[in-house]
Amino acid sequence: MKVVSAGEFAARSRCEAPAQWLDVRSSTEYAAGHIPGAINIPLEEIEARLEDISADLPLVLVCKGGQRARMAAGLLEPCRQKLSALDGGTDAWLKAGLPLVISKKTRWSLERQVRLVAGTLVLGATIAAALTSRAWLLATGFVGLGLTLAGLTDLCPMAVVLSAMPWNRTRKCDPGTAKEGKCCV
Length: 185
Fold this sequence. Notes:
Elements: E1 2-4, H1 6-15, E2 20-23, H2 27-32, E3 39-40, E4 59-62, H3 67-76, E5 83-86, H4 89-95, H5 110-131, H6 137-153, H7 157-163, H8 175-179
Parallel strand pairs: 1-5, 2-3, 2-4, 4-5
């Protein structure tokens, strides 16, 4: 696998045959901003979706900063020859002044929301335990147990609760406004 900078990819793409760009971030991260023409197959789905990846075209792996693209390359290297990863991911792509497809209104990924809430709960309970009663340490244990079970079972009750919050509800398209060039409300 080759690791290539955004500038090198941009210069190469003008001269070489096309490649398939594969964004391995979550669908929410992909919707927040992705390289034009890139398809989205989250890292955890790569092995199950090998049929969605072109066998004929060189493959360029992309994520936010480069780490998940390298992990995806490790999974794909045994069965793919022409494989590259974008060094620095979409962050480097954007920094190089190259275009991203960005939707008007984006949300934080559920994974990021869970990390924020879990971190805030643990930090708050730890501070409360230090300042008041040690009983607050039970709250940190509860959050740790929940995260452990979520990792083992791939079911996260905190993500279920967060997905029902108003800021995570799906926007619906009004057919009347879609004709006028406006999209969703």
